[in-house]
Amino acid sequence: MTISRNGATLWQPLRDVRTMTPRLVGHFVDTVATCRTLPGDAIAGDVTAITRMCLELVSGLLDGRDEVEKLNRLAVAAGGWAREGVPIDTILHAFHEGFQLAFDAVFEDAAASDPSSLIDGFRRATAISDQLCTTVTRAYIREHRDIAGEHHTAVHTLTSALLAGQPTLTMARECGIAVAEAYSVLALSIREHPDEHDPRLNGAVVARRKLRRVQAELAHRCGEQVLSLLSVDGGTLLIPAELVAEERLDALIEALSRAARVDVMAALVPASTLEIPSAAQRAHELLDMVERLDCPPALYRFGDLALEYQLTRPGPGRARLGELLAPLESHPELYETLRVHIANNMNRQRTARLLHIHTNTVDYRLRRVAQLTGLDPTHASGLWQLRSAMIARSFHTGPSVVADPSGTRRPRSDAQRCPAPGLGGVRSA
Predict the structure, then answer these.
(1) Which of 119, 127, 197, 305 has the most other CB atoms within 10 Å of its CB?
(2) Cα separation of the two ends of the chain
(3) Each residue of 345-368: pLDDT tens digit?
(4) CA-to-CA distance for 249 and 264, rounded, in angstroms?
């Protein structure tokens, strides 16, 4: 049904496609930033063709015709804009500018019109605007999700190849992702959010939302050049060395922790592209070690904990060190007192306060440790051996995490956690 105004068709200006098309295209060039940067052939071709099609579509909808084919063509065009990287806000701005100009032409002398016709006309104009913008937005978002999925797959494939030490030149070209000469290889551990264990909530959903916040923060700070394989528990990051300076990585880990709303612990090993597989393995070994030693959440570098790392390497030395604490196996209160005392830099008052015992009891228990082990924790030589023994013994309880070649981590259970702090990391308890 058409709406008449003084015997003429209210919508006649929009039906004059040949006149309205150049007016709208010229308006777009003047008001929409993206259009001002397009070459002349694109304006004369694509922009003009889409504008003409939209006018024909509006005319058909006003006449009550089925315009599914034209709506589908508009959706295809919107998908193309998403592929070309045209921002969605620019596209919708262009549509709203077009509708404003078009309906200004329709209602420019509306004062003499029948009020009921104007109200009905406004409702129909709003409905058509909604239909076109919804079609464009839905198609754009669908295509954008496909693009994001393709990029994610490309990143996953390339990252897996780098971690496996496979040739990546051809793969990088196919993925469209440049491979840097050197990377900061980071092993990440993301702690569980308390809400993951809330029976009123879906723990898997909470964990996925935590991961999405981490990924969004990573993309915000580092862009798309970072290669990552992450799960809800952690994983591996490959950050181009020239993208983020090493001294800024501590702030990055703190930002990821804030985004996740849980503690994030990381270990860093710089490497050239060819060294990535061995660097990733070492980074996860270092992360495993600092977790076993109950170090506070932070970014740890190999150089900071080289001594602890060496003490935890397999061999007869590690086994012998671990045996030094065997006499305390039947005295857990002595072992716990020694652990807390070392963690607090041998501060008797703080140890007593944390264990809810008297300082005299702390002294008594430390003397008992000396009697049972033959190593006196109040003397430098004995303390050194006891500390080393705790570090070595932390690896007698089985692996703290399981890390596959992709760097995906599964944290150990609380029963497996080692209570001893590392030499370089003092736990505040």
Answers:
(1) 305
(2) 77
(3) 888 899 999 999 999 999 999 999
(4) 13
Q: Residue 379: left (phi > 0), alpha (psi -120 to 50), or beta?
A: beta
State both tokens at 396: 């007698």
Token couple for 284:
């996860």
Encoded amino acid at 9, one letter: T
Residue 343: how many other CB atoms lie within 10 Å: 23
- Please tell me which residue, 68 or 402, carries the higher pLDDT value: 68
222: its two tokens: 């580092």
Of 289, 308, 298, the residue nearest 254 (C-alpha): 298
Query: Is the pLDDT confidence value at 112 over 80?
Result: no
- Tokens found for residue 208: 């996925």
Burial 267-289 (b: 16+ CB within 10 A, else e): bbbbbeeebbbebbbbbbbbbbb
Are 72 and 142 spatial neighbours (Cβ–Cβ below 8 Å)? Answer: no
Phi then psi dihedrals of residue 131, to 5 deg: -65, -45
On the CB side of 157, how many CA atoms lie within 13 Å of its CA?
17
Residue 52 near residue 60 (C-beta atoms within 8 A)? no
Cα 286 from Cα 290, distance rounded (Å): 6
Burial of 320 (0-12, 13-18, 19+ CB in 10 A): exposed
pLDDT digit string (tens) for 176-222? 677 888 999 999 999 999 999 988 888 888 999 999 899 889 988 88
- Asked whether 157 and 171 are in contact (CB, 8 A), the reply is yes
Choose the weakest-confidence range: 94-108, 263-277, 281-295: 94-108
pLDDT mean over 86-113? 72
Mean pLDDT on 86-98: 79
pLDDT of 13: 64
Highest-confidence range of 42-46, 63-67, 328-332, by mean pLDDT? 328-332
- Closest to 331 (Cα-Cα) out of 372, 293, 301, 382: 372
Q: How many CB atoms within 10 Å of residue 410?
A: 13
